[in-house]
Amino acid sequence: GDPLLDGCTPWPEEFAARYREAGHWRGETFDRLVRAWARAHPHRTALVHGERRLDRAELERSADRVARRLAGLGLRAGDRVVLQLPNVPEFFTVFFALQRLGAIPVLALPLHRRSEIAHLCRLSQAVAYVVPDVHQGFDHRELAAEVLKECPELRHVLVAGDPGAHLPLDGPGTDELPPAPDDASEVALLLVSGGTTGLPKLIPRTHDDYAYNVRASAELCGLGPDTVYLAALPVAHNFALGCPGVLGALYAGGTAVLTDEPDPDAAFALIARERVTTTALVPPTARMWAAATHWGEADLSSLRLLQVGGARLLPEHAAQVRAAFGPVLQQVFGMAEGLLNYTEPDAPEVVVLHTQGRPLSADDEIRIVDEDDRDVPPGTTGRLLTRGPYTLRGYYRADEHNASAFTADGHYRTGDLVRRTPTGHLVVEGRVKEQINRGGDKVAAAEVEEQLVQHPAVLDTAVVPVPDDLLGERTCAFVVPVPGATAPGRNEAAAFLRERGLAPYKIPDRIETLDALPVTAVGKTDKKALTTLARQLSAEG
Ligand code: J2J
């Protein structure tokens, strides 16, 4: 086929051949899939949102309409489009419209702001940006106007809803579309990484690899035509999109219910109304749901699979969730970069409570190593390296970063510390990457540090995690003031970072002032010492 999108790293041919022979990669594109779904069961419900219901034929027709609209604006195969929509049907009509054109969605999160969006537009050289009008009180049209000023290559802003000064998503288009590109080894979407460095990285996912990710996940999770999947996490995130997520539910012949309200009141009512069978949550939400089961009146008896992942679920919390919902709990340890681990739906209780699951594919290769990349003894904790049929071989346009993020033989350095049990299940014990996991929301310490040090009174700064009962971790920023200046307090720092366009969940929860940052023997900031100090300070209140 044609070469991969410029700036991506292909799998070596011997691996690609193996993945095809094994039947993992089947040459299915997402455009072909959506058409096959519509042809097989045109009147089966595909998407539910509030009072709206779209069947499979309507989903295909809406995607075609948006594809003609976008083609009329000049969009072509290979173009990148930053897609920032919450859990609404338009997310999928635009997603499949782009698949129809062979254009590539860049899946921004709903909480991304000017800093992240402008970066994603520039990095991907996006020609269009798709937004809602107002979502959860935030006007995305104003954000888009600012992004347009910063990104000269961005030609179009399309709004799902009231367009304001921009273009409506609904509108006239071309009558004729060119034939859909049909190369499944091509990039189908770009996912945003949780990040460890200054700015978020993009993860190229091909049709072949992502269709396998979706199909294998749907099979392991036992999805079928009777599946009703509730998307309560943002569908722009890998977990709710394809693990098995909305795409898995559609793949299996089922239905997806979309909501932006994961609180137990709203979600339980939806579960009862739509007879939801499957959903995915981050640990803090799962715990809120578990605490709410006994005072709720909603009928939750349809629920057969409750996936929890994105951050560590402590065994005692897993036990609470299992006690509240029954043996439907599944732990998921996944990453947008690829590798997925699931506890099997029929796994013994001890496995579900104490492990984060087993690799999805027989062709997932796992290594657990020390800091010199030597394998640690079985059962010992070490750094997780992985490669396989749905794990990236390189971030998009990131040669320098790729040199350290991958081993010479193509293993991705996850940055996670894990150990493997005798049954092959992984237990996540910690991480070596400088990332704070705020209840599933990932914060790259370096990204926040690079923004905070722009403050005129900040000489130096370091961001570390502090333990938190609900979120697992929160962020703490240590700041060293410029001599003679007063370091910003928490409110001033928050206002400053918001002004710079940083996503709200990246704004430090605590700020502590120091005269100097502690350094290690080699002169680097001693993050370990700071993490210990942050823990002590937060324990003191
Ligand atoms: C501990 N840490 C976990 C878990 C992810 C399914 C589920 C999650 C994600 C995801 C995903 C964890 N226990 N159960 O994409 O499809 C941390 C690890 C990991 C990082 C990846 C999916 N589950 N993590 O969370 O790309 O540190 O993907 O490397 O957002 O989350 O983050 P992300």
TrEMBL record:
Keyword Cell cycle: no
Keywords: ATP-binding, Ligase, Nucleotide-binding
MF annotations from Gene Ontology: acid-thiol ligase activity; ATP binding
Domain of life: Bacteria
SUPFAM superfamilies per UniProt: Acetyl-CoA synthetase-like (SSF56801)
Record's signal peptide: none
Protein name: 2,3-dihydroxybenzoate-AMP ligase
Species, as recorded: Streptomyces lincolnensis
